[in-house]
Design goal:
The chain has helices at about 10-20, 40-50, 95-100, and strands at about 1-5, 25-30, 65, 75-80, 100-105, 120-125, 130-135. By secondary structure, the chain is α/β, with parallel strands linked by helices. The protein has a single domain, classed as Rossmann fold, CATH 3.40.50.300.
């Protein structure tokens, strides 16, 4: 499925809708260039899961942020500054991941593939428009 958005708020709205389909244990891999809207997408996921989207920021230096308060916890990892890593090295235990949703920015830096993730590719079309492809 592919969706085109015309603004950051549109990208968040698509993610908010998508969040309704997520279940505990789901992993969402977010690929795209810098500025493609990956963190905006995570804000939409947070809103769709019932967490405060204003709390979402890129976890560039802490690697993982956790957002609670909704129907499922949301774990948000940003691997941009890492060479290669595993999910275990992020400090998330398997139990925690199974209880919530894990969203990973820059998944190409994972040392090992994740089983059955949802892959969302965000492509910059112009200054405002983005193409979101779900696999």
């Amino acid at each position: 499925m592919t969706r085109t958005t015309d603004s950051e708020s549109d990208t968040m709205a698509v993610a908010r809708e998508f969040a309704a389909t997520l279940r505990a244990g789901d992993v969402v891999l977010l690929s795209g260039d810098l500025g493609a809207g990956k963190t905006a997408f995570v804000r939409g996921l947070a809103a769709g899961l019932g967490a405060n989207p204003a709390d979402v920021s890129s976890p560039t230096f802490t690697l993982v942020h956790e957002y609670r308060g909704g129907r499922l916890p949301l774990f948000h990892a940003d691997l941009y500054r890492l060479q290669r890593t595993t999910v275990e090295e992020l400090g998330l235990d398997e139990w925690a991941i199974e209880q919530g949703v894990l969203a990973i920015e820059w998944p190409e830096r994972l040392a090992h593939p994740i089983t059955n993730p949802v892959v969302v590719e965000l492509r910059i079309m112009d200054e405002q428009r983005r193409e979101l492809t779900f696999r």
